[in-house]
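In the previous chapter we treated chains in isolation. Here, by contrast, the input contains two separate entities that must be folded as one system, with a combined length of 444 residues.
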Amino acid sequence: MTRLVEIPSSFDDRTFDQFAGGFAAAWADGERLLFDAHAADWASPYGLVGLLAAGQAAGSGGREKPLLTAPTASEVVSYWSRAGFFRAASELFEIHGKVPKAKPLDDSDVLLPVTAVKAAEDVHEVVSHIQQRATAILTSELGVDPKATMGFAMALSEACQNIVEHAGTGGWVAVQSYHWRRRLAKRVVVIAVADAGVGFRHSLAPTQATRFGTRWGDAAALEAALIQGVSRFRDPGRGQGLKGIRNYVSRWDGKISIRSGTARLSIVPSWDDDVPLTDGLSAFPGAQVLIIIPEQGPRKP
Amino acid sequence: MIQHIDVHAVLRRSVSGAYTDLVTRPTGRAVREGIEQAMADASIARIDFSGVGCIDYSCADEIVAKLLRERLRVLLLSGLTDGHREAIEPVLAGHGLAVLLERADGTLEPLGPRESAEALLEDLIARRLATRTPGGDFHLTAA
């Protein structure tokens, strides 16, 4: 029997928990999964890399490769293709539906197409690729001080390294710039990173579980990593990466949100109505990181 | 004697590919080991970052902080961009360590928490490795 997992028509960080709920219920049965994206009309980078993580988990442990129905709307499937989604998805899913061939990247909004991150070399490639394009977007369109554009590459590097160092499996990263008309009335640059690895709780448990006692869980693990700068390594220099991302994001009035297991912890800027901590969510494997840097200055009408 | 290290050259020797960025722990570790080999017994080193693109926190920690904690008494940094400083300064603050930035005109600027930076300058002056000019700038006495 095949179990259906619906992809929300607008698939982003706000609808991800709805998707995760459907995924958790279907995955628990051990049946083959069918991810149904035929009615999708939009997906953010976070949605795309999160879907890949779900596909990775769904096909793990000797299970049959999951199925994926591609969006039927031509502009949607074309965008997913340009964003590099299908190139990565073809390894994880049996894809059904018309998928256009990915054209060479001339889309100025896709700063980094969906890219697999498995090893340190992949992080080098990501950082090399992003710098020139991101610098132009950050300074000319977002009004970020040119001196601070290096911080963006650092944040991206550290977010990707979390996969290499802690996930125990590969993951994906995507970077895009777009105009957030409804939510912020500004341009934003978004970094989305996802894996279906062991997650923060499992990674930190050997060194942190005792310290937190009965509070220990996904939320406490995220708090330890993002707020306290704790790492699973005992080396005193470890744990700087997420702390550095947090500082960079705060300086540019941005947002960082990390979902792992059943919890999500966010550093929430004044322009966003998200809550800092949500616990008791539907379980989802690994970790999913969202970083948003908005255009600087007042909102535009 | 101050040992001069060209980090970009060490990076090219240490890591496969033509990377110009100091990112990831393994890269930082490889570059630090390359620097340690090049330094021999020196306790003061001038590390030149010219030609290096991005540095992330992991590499700043692996290279700058670990060299100071485990190997060197004094570390002079040159060729730093503002972007490099964004990675290095939080790492120094986290460890309570200080280094000296050698500007293009030869003057020295301490980087790191104030107490550590002042102690470093006092130590250099006491050891006659640096002097203070009447204008208040600090210079090295040895090249």
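DSSP finds nine helices and 13 strands in chain A. The two ends of chain A are 51 Å apart (CA to CA). Compare these points with the single-chain example from earlier in the chapter.
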